[in-house]
């Protein structure tokens, strides 16, 4: 008879994993080397000796247990994270000192390509860098951006060892201040063409991803691209490849809280395992034969999915659970989760810093802790339906606080849609697996492909409905999210009435965080903030509960409308903004306009205002169409138009006008004066010297409090006469770090300096805010950076 080794609920691997994580954090940030681990063990030994003298045997054992895992975590974090990070920083600093613009880097591709050139992206585990004196070790994580026109299939794939040549630089600051700083420097390399990527060989990871590559090529041969093709969805759902997914569909799934159903994740591993259990039960196969078959299938499914980290994490939990049963030493679910966490973090300690890791283990622990209790209050039959419903609700309970804090998302409908969508996903996995099997054998699969396409349409419809009942909320305080987590842990570890009280308390705190209003602007005067969006403009005006966004930043790639979702919207939500009274676009250039697409899609907007200048690149037309779709009124602003706002006024001094030979569209920018409580700010867009001369001639300028410097500080704007007429008390200047245009120009800075005007620059200080009121002027910024 098989007996459990541990009593029900006993799981020493769980606290071991927790101590290991704490140790990894300490070691990753440590500057004291291995002396820290030795000191930790020394203190623990002294404490053990004291406890032994006073005969506290149980406490001594627990302290020894915790010290052992803390020291192990510290050692791993120090050796695998802190030391390589320091070496990578030194190597880059040495190579950058040579003055070369391009760098050659060798390493292993660790992720599948996302997107197609010119927006293809992957990650590289770099190994060495060519410096001025030859190759040097460069143990760093590098994000690779590939331009050019080559097909993504002709480029090296996941697991291949490659040599890249491109522009290497440290990754920029994260968009959100909520992001936990990482103990290593992340880098990015921009590669102009696939010809600059040289495949040098394969690795163990290449062998592990071979089933994935084989099936992906078979899928590509069997199913063409374009509208109506199942190739993109099937590649994402079963193979973990997202390069061909429609961006709009991805956005809807994210908004509805169902993106984890679209791409291979830990949930898919559990669903696939559930399907096999159902089939084996139907075939009356049980006992060890069932566990062996299930273990083999889980391993194969993880390989088919490309052995990506979420699938590996979930597969490891299932494999440990099954292996212990096969060895007749079964353990609890919590013990299996703890053991898998220890194995994973000892092998890859950097995983403790990934939000995906947190979500995976939160979901698994939620199911292990709450699924049985939820199932107890649901009908018993049909068991497969209500057990899946209970598991989905348990996972939602555990992951909802993380989703709120990290993604500002309250997916209200996901609590109802997930229990419906998850069984549908399981069916799609089964049908999609049949399609892949037929493709691999070159057998026609029209019927299963049609069934899969129909199922995907139903899943998309469900995601669309869920997205309509999802809300973006202000970023909650991390302390509040940790309180919710602590209450959920308490509910999982207690019984009876105390469990219900803890669960209700967790729900109450979560609702308070989710429904709480964000912080407002100044009660008197206003604040104007230049948001750090790289080489572009995004100017935020706030007062009381009101907010206006002037421009939205963006890359120079005119179709990258996801920029606002990753770079701009998080900044607005961090500031408590979930609605904008107006959005103003000064002129239709990508570095001012592209971020506004996501703003219009994600947030309620009262008005879209823009200039009457030429629509270069069709950006006005595209934004007008999106605004019409979202029910946002559009108003082209003309000279001397006035926007009357609650307690404030925006007066247009310049908009559109005749086309000039130099900087034609820039000089059609809106120039507007914002006024409130006797305080003023001038917004200039990218207007240059001709527009400034026109305003000076019309005597339209008067002294102001804040100047938004025109055209990112270019030498073609901000003349001495212009600054003299305005006499600004402070200036805001938005430009990208190390930008290729040389902004801001030394001449412009010299002009502002000659008038004793302090300048806050986003390339040096990131997000810069000026708050002006009748009581005085306050300056604030995110942080001081090197030039």
Explain what this protein looks like in three dimensions.
- By secondary structure, this protein is of the alpha/beta class.
- The strands form 4 sheets. It has an 8-stranded mixed beta sheet, with helices on one face. A 7-stranded mixed beta sheet has the order 15-16-17-18-19-20-21. It has a 5-stranded mixed barrel with strand order 1-2-3-5-4.
- Helix 9 packs antiparallel against helix 10 (309-326) and helix 16 packs antiparallel against helix 17.
Oligomer: single chain
The major β-sheet equals: 8 strands, mixed
Radius of gyration, rounded? 29 Å
Pick out the low-confidence regions: 1-9
What is the number of helical segments per DSSP (H or I, 4+ residues)? Answer: 25
- State mean pLDDT (0 to 100 scale): 86
Q: How large a portion of the residues is in β-strands, by DSSP E?
A: 15-25%
Helix/strand-derived category reads: alpha/beta
State the main characteristics.
globular; alpha/beta; 8-stranded mixed beta sheet; disordered N terminus; 787 residues
Question: Can you lay out the helices and strands and say which pair or pack?
Answer:
Elements: H1 13-29, H2 35-53, H3 57-96, E1 103-109, E2 120-131, E3 134-146, E4 161-170, E5 187-191, E6 197-201, H4 204-208, H5 210-222, H6 231-239, H7 247-255, H8 266-282, H9 287-304, H10 309-326, H11 333-347, H12 355-376, H13 383-407, E7 409-411, H14 414-440, H15 446-467, E8 470-472, H16 478-493, H17 497-515, E9 526-530, E10 539-543, E11 546-550, H18 563-574, E12 582-585, H19 590-593, H20 595-602, E13 608-610, H21 619-630, E14 634-636, E15 642-645, E16 648-654, E17 671-676, E18 679-683, H22 689-697, E19 706-708, H23 720-726, E20 730-733, H24 746-754, E21 759-761, H25 762-765, E22 768-773, E23 776-781
Parallel strand pairs: 3-5, 11-12, 12-13, 13-14, 18-19, 19-20, 20-21
Antiparallel strand pairs: 1-2, 1-4, 2-3, 4-5, 4-6, 7-8, 9-10, 9-22, 10-11, 15-16, 16-17, 17-18, 22-23
Helix pairs in contact: 1-3, 1-11, 2-3, 5-14, 7-15, 8-9, 8-10, 8-14, 9-10, 10-11, 10-12, 11-12, 12-13, 13-14, 13-16, 14-15, 16-17, 18-20, 20-21
């Amino acid at each position: 008879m098989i007996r459990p080794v541990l009593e029900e609920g006993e799981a020493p691997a769980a606290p071991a994993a927790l101590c290991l994580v704490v140790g990894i954090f300490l070691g990753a940030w440590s500057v004291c080397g291995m002396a820290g681990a030795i000191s930790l063990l020394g203190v623990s030994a002294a404490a053990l000796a004291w406890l032994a003298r006073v005969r506290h045997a149980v406490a001594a054992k627990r302290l020894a247990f915790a010290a052992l895992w803390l020291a192990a975590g510290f050692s791993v974090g120090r050796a695998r994270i802190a030391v390589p990070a320091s070496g990578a920083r030194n190597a880059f600093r040495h190579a950058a000192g040579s003055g070369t613009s391009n760098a050659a880097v060798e390493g292993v591709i660790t992720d599948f390509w996302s997107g197609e050139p010119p927006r293809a992206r992957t990650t590289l585990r770099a190994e060495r860098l060519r410096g001025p004196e030859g190759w040097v070790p460069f143990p760093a994580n590098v994000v690779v951006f590939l331009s050019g026109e080559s097909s993504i299939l002709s480029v090296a794939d996941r697991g291949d060892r490659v040599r890249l040549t491109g522009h290497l630089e440290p990754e920029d600051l994260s968009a959100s201040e909520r992001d936990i700083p990482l103990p290593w420097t992340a880098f990015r390399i921009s590669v102009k063409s696939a010809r600059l990527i040289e495949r040098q060989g394969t690795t163990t990871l290449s062998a592990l991803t071979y089933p994935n590559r084989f099936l992906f090529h078979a899928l590509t041969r069997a199913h063409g691209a374009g509208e109506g093709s199942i190739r993109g969805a099937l590649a994402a759902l079963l193979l973990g490849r997202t390069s061909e997914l429609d961006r709009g569909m991805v956005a809807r799934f994210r908004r509805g809280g169902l993106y984890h159903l679209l791409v291979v994740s830990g949930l898919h591993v559990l669903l696939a395992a559930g399907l096999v259990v159902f089939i084996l039960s139907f075939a009356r196969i049980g006992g060890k034969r069932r566990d062996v078959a299930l273990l083999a299938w889980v391993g194969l499914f993880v390989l088919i999915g490309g052995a990506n980290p979420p699938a590996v994490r979930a597969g490891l939990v299932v494999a440990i659970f099954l292996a212990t049963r096969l060895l007749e030493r079964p353990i609890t679910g919590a013990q299996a989760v703890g053991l898998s966490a220890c194995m994973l973090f000892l092998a890859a300690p950097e995983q403790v810093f990934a939000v995906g890791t947190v979500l995976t283990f939160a979901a698994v622990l939620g199911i292990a802790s709450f699924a049985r209790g939820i199932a107890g209050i649901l009908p018993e039959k049909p068991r497969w339906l209500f057990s899946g419903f209970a598991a989905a609700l348990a996972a939602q309970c555990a992951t909802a606080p993380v989703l709120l804090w990290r993604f500002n998302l309250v997916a209200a409908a996901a609590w109802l849609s997930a229990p419906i969508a998850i069984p549908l996903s399981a069916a799609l996995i089964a049908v999609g697996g049949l399609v892949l099997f037929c493709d691999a054998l070159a057998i026609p699969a029209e019927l299963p492909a049609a069934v899969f396409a129909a199922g995907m349409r139903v899943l998309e419809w469900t995601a669309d409905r869920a997205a309509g009942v999802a809300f973006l909320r202000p970023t909650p305080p991390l302390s509040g999210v940790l309180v919710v987590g602590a209450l959920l842990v308490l509910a999982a570890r207690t019984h009876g009435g105390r469990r219900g009280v803890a669960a209700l308390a967790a729900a109450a705190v979560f609702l308070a965080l989710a429904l709480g209003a964000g912080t407002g602007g100044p009660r008197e005067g206003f604040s104007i903030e230049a948001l750090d969006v790289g080489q572009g403009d995004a100017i935020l005006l706030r007062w009381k509960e009101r907010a206006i966004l002037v421009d939205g930043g963006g890359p120079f790639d005119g179709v990258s409308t996801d920029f606002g979702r990753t770079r701009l919207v998080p900044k607005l939500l961090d500031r408590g903004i979930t609605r904008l009274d107006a959005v103003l676009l000064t002129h239709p250039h990508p570095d001012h306009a592209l971020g506004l697409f996501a703003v219009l899609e994600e947030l309620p907007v009262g008005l879209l205002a823009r200039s009457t200048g030429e629509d270069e690149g069709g950006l006005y037309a595209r934004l007008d169409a999106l605004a019409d779709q979202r029910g946002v009124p559009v108003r082209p602003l003309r000279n001397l138009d006035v926007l009357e706002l609650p307690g404030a006024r925006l007066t247009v001094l310049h908009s559109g006008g005749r086309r000039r030979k130099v900087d034609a569209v820039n000089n059609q920018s809106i120039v507007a004066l914002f006024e409130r409580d006797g305080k003023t700010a001038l917004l200039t867009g990218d207007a240059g010297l001709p527009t400034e001369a026109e305003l000076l001639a019309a005597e339209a300028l008067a002294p102001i409090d804040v100047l938004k410097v025109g055209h990112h500080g270019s030498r073609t704007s901000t003349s001495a006469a212009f600054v003299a007429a305005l006499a600004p008390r402070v200036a805001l200047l938005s430009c990208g770090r190390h930008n290729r245009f040389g902004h801001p120009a030394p001449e412009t800075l010299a002009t502002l300096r000659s008038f004793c005007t302090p300048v806050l620059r986003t390339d040096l200080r990131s997000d810069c805010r000026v708050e002006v009121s009748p009581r005085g002027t306050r300056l604030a910024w995110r942080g001081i950076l090197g030039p």
